[in-house]
Amino acid sequence: MHTMKQTVRKESVRCKVCGTINTFLYLSDFSYGQRLLLLDDGQHYALADLLQDNVWDEYYKTAEEIVKQSSVTYSDERLREFVNQTFGVTCDRINDQSVAAPQRQKRCSRCDALDWEPYLTEPEKTDVMAFPVVTHEGWRQLPSGEQRKIVF
Ligand SMILES: [Zn+2]
Q1: Residue 132 in contact with residue 46, Cβ under 8 Å?
Q2: Is the pLDDT of residue 86 over 70?
Q3: Ligand 1 center from residue 106 Cα (angstroms)
Q4: Distance between CA 106 and CA 11 in Å, rounded?
Q5: Among 37, 112, 120, 135, fewest CB within 10 Å belongs to which?
Q6: How far apart, in whole angstroms, are the C-alpha atoms of residue 12 and residue 133?
Q7: Centroid of ligand 1 to alpha carbon of 55 (angstroms)
Q8: How many angstroms is it from 99 CA to the middle of ligand 1?
Q9: 17 Cα: distance to centroid of ligand 1 (angstroms)
Q10: CB–CB of 37/46 below 8 Å?
Q11: What does the alpha-carbon distance between residue 77 and residue 69 come to, in Å, rounded to a whole number?
């Protein structure tokens, strides 16, 4: 599996249910063209490098075409958000987990809860970490009709 190093911000927050402190990662504002995607366990991450990864653009265009053909009114902003939220469907599984949306709610490593105290337990830190880079072998093998069915 291809991995890539990236500088991330670490934010530690306390679980409201069991009190365990969990640390979550965010890309710095300077990591242009990259997305940090949370895996299905809500705890591990993968990286999408949009400068190398043309599936993002393809996926965006497909979503845009479908929206244009329908009578639904959509702003560019909402379309981008939709693509952000659902891009994981184009990704191959990583370590036997599906790649979820970047905004997927983060789960407590101990009790699986989704509830967090609103403040950080310590000042945020930055760190350089290696992440698996997402691939799209399965997605690419699908005929475009099948891709569309998955999207909508
Ligand atoms: Zn917990």
Answers
A1: yes
A2: yes
A3: 11
A4: 12
A5: 112
A6: 24
A7: 35
A8: 22
A9: 5
A10: yes
A11: 18
pLDDT digits (tens, 9 = 90+) for 6-64: 999 999 999 999 999 999 999 876 667 888 888 888 788 999 988 888 898 888 898 88
- Three-point CA angle 88, 48, 109, nearest 5°: 65
pLDDT at 103 > cutoff 60: no
**Residues β-bridged to residue 130:** 5
Task: Answer yes or no: are the C-beta atoms of 89 and 150 closer than 8 Å.
Answer: yes
